[in-house]
Structure to design on (610 residues):
């Protein structure tokens, strides 16, 4: 959510006014350069297809995801079950598509949580006085010192297992990534002339942060968003794999891998579809992130 | 140090985030009001929070991490943690070593010819490796080495006292599955840092003054590339440590991760707090060591920190 806000803020006419031609030029160059990377385009198409499949899940799945046909349990791929069936005879393809839905949504929501937590705090920390920054940064460092997955587990231990809490926990553990990028970028643009100019005509600090700092650091934040979604999907899958995320009848990519792994000695095919799906999504997101970073240029 | 202090604040606050009345949860669903009150009194929940934090901090400093309420009721948490920490430490250290041993030379090879064949292959593989969740790597390794080939045990743990190979064979798959991501990250960072360093003026200067390429790379570029590599390594420590939770779950290793998951399932808050604290302490210590190593790699940092010191 916030990622679209960020890009919209970047296209905001007021923001563009600060450096009208240059800003537009940079944006066009970004798109053009992005278009030149074939790999990035492929990733974009793959992601769009998967998102479309997830959205259209109820329309395109051959079976209801929770329907059990015990007689057909633990089958490999076949004509009637393209990706086989799981231990209680549920169609893996159907569960995969519905699982995609849960996992993608979880990834986006956790990312939104972490952006909402990390970006404002990072902006304030990077822009304001050393005293505030020092304090905020010490607290952030303490939070970051706890190994991320352990922190997520702790939060789940306190709040109880389940998808909502898992997403909150993942949002919290990934927030430092946004915080760091926002802080560093805000710090680097703080001394720019246009910030000084807006300060001198009496803009309030929140306005400067929102209108002038944020649009100018949207590039690095966009890159980070694309990585964070991938990390959030992996984290959600890990928690659901352990059984602390999504609860049973609902499929998620992680819980599907777990279901399949318990019967790996009899039929190992089941672990592949959800695993490959995770790897494909995460690779596509990271390729896209890299491509955006390259397109933005190093300067 | 302030970091560790704040971590204790955070873990202390974790307990405060428990929804509902902790005393009632601990006393059980059907406890009478008097019983709940009793629990509250013994846990000190009636004291003001600053006093409770003081008590908490004080007991941590004395090595008392509280008492387990549901994983193994009545057993000191410090006991539980001590019996588990060795397993996690072995897996984590093994994984990080594998990551370093694999990642450094791969990244080095890639950096020598940016955009060459090696570089492209390494980049592609590293990107792919980073996209594979640790539990997937673990399952694929188990499938291949344990189920198909039958070379290594799939699950379980054997203490080193029962034979070193036995011990290692139970850990190696777990360590490998944790090592893949650090390996890829380290390879990438080594490549990036080395390429950056090779573009620097002092490298051009060294080359133009007739130094041999190998000497330029090892003596100038590599040493300057070491700091970003060390930073990434430091970041991986926390990730591997946390990730070992999932891996211990798969391989049924009795480490901190398994302990955490068990206590999460039964909401054993003191154990959860303790594990978070121990994890953070481990990370802080590693970072401290790395900070010191920066001074070794970059003499500028040495003089900056000891202005008016030795000289």
């Amino acid at each position: 959510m916030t990622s679209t806000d960020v890009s919209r803020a970047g296209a905001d006419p007021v923001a563009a006014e600060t450096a009208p031609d240059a800003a537009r030029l940079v944006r066009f160059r970004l798109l053009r350069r992005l278009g030149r990377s074939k790999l990035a385009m492929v990733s974009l198409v793959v992601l769009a297809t998967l998102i479309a499949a997830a959205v259209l899940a109820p329309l395109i799945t051959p079976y209801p995801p929770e329907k059990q046909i015990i007689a057909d349990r633990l089958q490999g791929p076949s004509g009637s079950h393209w990706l086989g069936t799981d231990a209680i005879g549920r169609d893996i393809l159907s569960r995969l598509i519905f699982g995609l839905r849960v996992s993608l949504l979880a990834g986006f929501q956790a990312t939104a949580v972490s952006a909402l937590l990390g970006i404002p705090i990072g902006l304030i920390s990077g822009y304001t006085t050393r005293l505030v920054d020092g304090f905020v940064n010490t607290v952030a460092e303490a939070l970051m010192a706890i190994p991320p997955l352990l922190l997520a587990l702790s939060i789940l231990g306190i709040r109880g297992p389940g998808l909502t809490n898992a997403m909150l926990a993942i949002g919290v553990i990934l927030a430092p990534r946004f915080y760091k990028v926002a802080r560093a970028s805000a710090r680097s643009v703080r001394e720019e002339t246009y910030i000084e100019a807006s300060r001198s005509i009496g803009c309030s600090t929140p306005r400067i942060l929102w209108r002038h700092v944020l649009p100018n650091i949207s590039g690095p934040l966009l890159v980070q968003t694309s990585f964070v979604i991938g990390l959030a999907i992996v984290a959600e899958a890990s928690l659901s794999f352990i059984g602390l995320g999504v609860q049973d009848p609902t499929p998620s990519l992680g819980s599907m891998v777990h279901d399949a792994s318990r019967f790996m000695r009899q039929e190992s095919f089941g672990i592949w579809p959800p695993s490959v799906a995770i790897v494909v999504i995460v690779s596509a997101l990271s390729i896209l992130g890299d491509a955006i970073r390259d397109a933005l240029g190093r300067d | 140090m302030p970091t560790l202090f704040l971590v204790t604040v955070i873990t202390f606050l974790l307990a405060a985030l428990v929804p509902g009345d902790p005393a009632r949860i601990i006393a059980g669903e059907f406890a009478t009001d008097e019983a709940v009150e009793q629990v509250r009194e013994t846990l000190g929940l009636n004291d003001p929070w600053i006093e409770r934090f003081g008590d908490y901090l004080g007991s941590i400093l004395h090595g008392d991490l509280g008492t387990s309420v549901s994983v193994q009721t009545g057993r000191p948490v410090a006991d539980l943690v001590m019996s588990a920490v060795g397993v996690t430490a072995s897996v984590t250290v093994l994984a990080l070593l594998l990551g370093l041993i694999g990642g450094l030379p791969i990244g080095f090879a890639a950096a020598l010819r940016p955009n060459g064949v090696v570089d492209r292959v390494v980049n592609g593989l590293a990107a792919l490796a980073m996209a594979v969740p640790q539990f997937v790597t673990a399952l694929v390794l188990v499938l291949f080495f344990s189920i198909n080939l039958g070379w290594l045990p799939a699950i379980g743990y054997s203490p080193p006292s029962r034979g070193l190979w036995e011990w290692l064979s139970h850990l190696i798959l777990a360590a490998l599955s944790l090592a893949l991501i650090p390996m890829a990250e380290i390879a990438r960072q080594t490549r990036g840092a080395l390429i950056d360093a090779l573009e620097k003026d002092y490298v051009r200067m060294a080359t133009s003054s007739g130094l041999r390429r190998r000497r330029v790379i090892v003596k100038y570029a590599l040493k300057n590339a070491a700091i970003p590599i060390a930073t990434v390594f430091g970041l991986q420590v926390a990730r591997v440590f946390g990730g070992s939770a999932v891996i211990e779950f798969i391989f049924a290793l009795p480490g901190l991760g398994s302990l955490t998951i068990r206590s999460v399932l039964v909401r054993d808050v003191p154990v959860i707090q303790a594990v978070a604290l121990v994890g953070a302490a481990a990370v802080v210590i590693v970072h401290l060591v790395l900070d010191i190593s920066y001074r070794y790699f970059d003499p500028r940092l040495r003089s900056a920190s000891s202005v008016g010191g030795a000289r």
